[in-house]
């Protein structure tokens, strides 16, 4: 994909690689948000309201992460590929099971998606650093820090009865 002209001082080849990496994480953030909404809309059980609200918070934060990632890709002179088809084609996240109803089932599925998202972001932090882009690494570090906290909040519901 062609890069847009910019006065950004990172070499064009590094910027193109970074935009590709950022688009991978953008796809994951978009898909993570849809997973959280799927859980939000379909959760049932005694912890309904707590999980319903938590899943909505995860979706909102994932949308925010997508926005940060997309804007960084654009700032580097790239094109942010965050539409549904692009995201579905690029994501490393597994499909969200459509047959889950129980709170624990949704917690397990969303925890898995959050963990996979965080793992991808962590790997991208290292790649951004290797390419000399501390700003992208910083954006991604902010995202993984918040994602780790969300994972903690979600996983806490798995330990309620232990």
Give structural notes.
The structure is a single chain. The protein is mainly α and 162 residues long. It has a single domain (12-85, 99-158), classed as Up-down Bundle (Ferritin). It is 72% helix and 0% strand. The protein contains five helices and no strands. It has helices at residues 12-42, 48-75, 84-90, 103-130, 134-155. Helix 2 (48-75) packs antiparallel against helix 5. The model has no long low-confidence stretch (mean pLDDT 94).
At the fold tier of CATH, the topology name is Ferritin
Helix content: over 70%
Describe the biggest sheet?
none
Give the mean pLDDT. 94
By secondary-structure content and strand pairing, the structural class works out as mainly alpha
Summarize the structure.
With 162 residues, this protein is mainly α. Helix content is 72%, strand content 0%.
Relevant terms:
72% helix, single chain, Ferritin, elongated, mainly alpha
Give a topology summary:
Blueprint: H1 12-42, H2 48-75, H3 84-90, H4 103-130, H5 134-155
Helix pairs in contact: 1-2, 1-3, 1-4, 2-5, 4-5
């Amino acid at each position: 994909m062609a890069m847009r002209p910019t006065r950004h001082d990172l070499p064009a080849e590094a910027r193109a690689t970074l935009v590709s990496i950022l688009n991978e994480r953008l796809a994951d953030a978009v898909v993570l948000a849809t997973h959280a909404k799927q859980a939000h809309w379909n959760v049932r059980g005694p912890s309904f309201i707590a999980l319903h609200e938590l899943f909505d918070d995860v979706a909102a934060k994932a949308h925010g992460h997508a926005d940060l990632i997309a804007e960084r890709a654009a700032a580097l002179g790239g094109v942010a590929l965050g539409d549904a088809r692009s995201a579905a084609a690029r994501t490393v996240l597994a499909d969200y099971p459509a047959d889950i109803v129980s709170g624990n089932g949704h917690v397990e599925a969303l925890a898995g998606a959050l963990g996979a998202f965080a793992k991808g972001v962590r790997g991208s932090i290292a790649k951004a650093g290797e390419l000399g882009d501390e700003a992208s690494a910083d954006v991604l570090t902010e995202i993984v820090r918040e994602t780790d906290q969300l994972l903690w909040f979600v996983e806490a519901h798995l330990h309620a009865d232990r």
